[in-house]
Design goal:
Layout: H1 2-10, H2 16-40, H3 43-46, E1 55-60, E2 63-76, E3 82-90, E4 94-102
Antiparallel strand pairs: 1-2, 2-3, 3-4
């Protein structure tokens, strides 16, 4: 066990500072991309572009539905939440209805 600990302590990573800096920049870029996506997908910015015939990439959380064509769009506003109902046509020949709620 002592041999393994000694080997671990003597292990040297070349350019460790540069690798740490790269990782930090990569994490920062990922955070900024998420911030941009949050702004772009906010209803006040994206809803004017959701029109029938528009080709869109449909994702909900980790689930990716791929590319589809907007068939219909309805805005329904209950008292507590804004709800939007989207109809998409996908190239594999079926339509889905996508319900998205904004709080």
């Amino acid at each position: 066990m002592k041999e393994l600990e000694e080997e671990r302590d003597n292990f040297v990573i070349p350019n460790e500072n540069k690798i740490a800096e790269y990782h930090s920049i990569k994490a920062q870029l990922s955070k900024l991309n998420e911030d941009i996506r949050t702004v772009i997908t906010h209803p006040s910015y994206c809803l004017p572009f959701i029109q029938p015939g528009r080709i869109v990439k449909v994702r909900e959380g980790d689930q990716d539905f791929g590319w589809g064509c907007v068939i219909n769009f309805q805005k329904k506003a209950p008292a507590t939440k804004k709800v939007f109902l989207f109809s998409f046509f996908f190239p594999f020949f079926f339509s889905i209805y996508f319900l998205h709620q904004f709080f």
